[in-house]
Write a structure and sequence with these properties.
The chain is mainly alpha-helical. The protein is built from 5 helices and no strands.
């Protein structure tokens, strides 16, 4: 993740992205990094998210149903990211 932070810093310094975009990228990096550190990066597709997903053979056809049974605390960061648009 450190190399990704370096990339975003270089892009910001070069004027290739705004401070707001940099801030969002840093927040995204933190959420993903924390999920990896905690060992909690579960598949959690949105509604109809599996329709055209290349990982369907890996997860199976019922991942959208299984996500309802997963720890909502572990999914909090993902749900927050989805609302950042």
């Amino acid at each position: 993740m450190d190399s990704m932070k370096l990339f975003w810093c270089a892009a910001l310094a070069a004027g290739a992205l705004s401070a707001q975009t940099f801030s969002g990228a840093a927040a995204l990096d933190e959420v993903i990094n924390q999920a990896i550190v905690n060992g909690a990066l579960p598949a959690a597709p949105r509604e109809d998210g599996c329709k055209n997903c290349e990982y369907l053979p890996v997860c199976g056809p019922y991942e959208e149903e299984r996500v309802k049974e997963k720890s909502q605390a572990e999914l909090r960061g993902l749900k927050e990211m989805r609302g950042w648009r």
